[in-house]
Amino acid sequence: VRISELARATGVSVPTIKYYLREGLLPSGTPTASNQADYDVTHVERLRLLRTLREVGKVPVSRLRDLVAALERDGGTVHDVLATANDALSPTPPPDVDPRARALADDLVAEAGWNRVRPEAPDRDNLAAALQAVLGAVSTDAGRNVLRAYATAADRIGALDIASIAAGDRQSVLRRMVVGSAVFGEILSALRRLADEHHSALRFGDQDGERVR
Amino acid sequence: VRISELARATGVSVPTIKYYLREGLLPSGTPTASNQADYDVTHVERLRLLRTLREVGKVPVSRLRDLVAALERDGGTVHDVLATANDALSPTPPPDVDPRARALADDLVAEAGWNRVRPEAPDRDNLAAALQAVLGAVSTDAGRNVLRAYATAADRIGALDIASIAAGDRQSVLRRMVVGSAVFGEILSALRRLADEHHSALRFGDQDGERVR
């Protein structure tokens, strides 16, 4: 199909498609006699993937290259690709993480039994940076118990995420993994805020006695 | 203290402090004879809150106003403020959510028993927008079971979030609630990606047989 039809089929604008072509994020089409190019189902699939990553995964354009490179790389285990995808989907950690917060993050990872997480995984620093903002509160026994409960919930979800990756050819396994990591992160965030709203209404929403002074 | 000392105490730059003052996000200081103003511990606390919301909660400057208004509003239950904070911390939902995805989101909320969530909560549409990206996969029985497990994990976490809000004066309860909602969202996202990495390494990291074709 022509580029205009490709745009119609995927909901991605022609200028954006041209940008992806220039940046090597989308493979070139097959040149046709009329000084145009012909695109096929692989282009449709790649554009849908890029659109999902941008719109749902909120992946910056600058990170798309790493993800596409991981998708196209030969060899390596599925796990190598998941680690690359995770790194591309993680926020860039701040440069000045408090060593106490980082030690707490490493403790939590160890306590959860996640002994296969790379020491250099950027999410260790992302976790530490978030912990740093509430370091007083999470350094108490009660705070530590809340963190452990979070880690337990995350462990169940992580086991489920990986168990639900179905077998298939390389491209489709990797695409599902990358999309799953981005999309299910958004699903979990939205579900948590919805659960917060419900439980807050139960505890704080009705009685005058629960009004804040 | 003077504005320069306020900047040093909070790590927020003088130009940013002046911007917050102009925008009404930070109350004015007490005027002094020397055509300057004097700031106190309430200004330090507000600036720390604003910094945490910006840096950890990734709250856009344009949303800070809603949060500060919720903090300063008289009356209303703690729950009213949590709902406002959640709305300010939620991404803006896309305008064109597929009605089937929205119906699935509403089903999930109902199945989870979250009958106190407002019909107009923007996170219903945020959940729907994420579900829309994987609608084929989550419309199967297996996909539905994964979503239910996510909702169960979110329900435990939501109950925990609300249970761990300690009593206190209005400002401190609200501050902990807003910071908690932003910061613990980041903590959960980082923990999930770390758990994914661990479980992926267990399942896919070692054996040649698990290499993707």
What do these coordinates show?
Two copies of one chain form a homodimer. Chain A is mainly alpha-helical. Chain A is built from ten helices and two strands, in the order ααββαααααααα. The first copy, chain A, has helices spanning 3-10, 14-22, 41-55, 61-72, 78-89, 99-111, 122-133, 135-138, 141-163, 170-204, and strands at residues 30-31, 37-38. In chain A, strands 1-2 form a two-stranded antiparallel sheet. In chain A, β1 (30-31) and β2 form a beta hairpin. In chain A, α4 (61-72) runs antiparallel to α5 and α5 packs across α10 (170-204). The longest helix of chain A is centred in the C-terminal third of the chain and has 35 residues, at 170-204. Mean pLDDT of chain A is 86; it is low at 208-213. At the A-B interface, α5, α7, α9 and α10 of A face α5, α7, α9 and α10 of B.
Topology record:
Two copies of one chain form a homodimer.
Chain A: H1 3-10, H2 14-22, E1 30-31, E2 37-38, H3 41-55, H4 61-72, H5 78-89, H6 99-111, H7 122-133, H8 135-138, H9 141-163, H10 170-204
Antiparallel strand pairs in A: 1-2
Helix pairs in contact in A: 4-5, 5-10, 6-7
Keywords:
10 helices, 213 residues, 2 strands, homodimer
Largest interface: A-B, 93 and 93 residues
Largest sheet of chain A, order of strands side by side?
Answer: 1-2
- What is the N-to-C succession of helices and strands of chain A? HHEEHHHHHHHH
**Total strands of chain A:** 2
The low-pLDDT segments of chain A are 208-213
- For the record, give the distance between the C-alpha atoms at the N and C termini of chain A, rounded to a whole number: 65 Å
Question: Helical region count of chain A?
Answer: 10
Which term fits the overall shape of chain A? elongated
Q: Mean pLDDT across all residues of chain A, rounded? A: 86
Biggest β-sheet of chain A: count, sense, barrel? 2 strands, antiparallel
Beta content of chain A = under 5%
What is Rg of chain A?
22 Å
Secondary-structure content class of chain A? mainly alpha
Give me the oligomer status.
homodimer
Please bin the fraction of helical residues of chain A.
55-70%
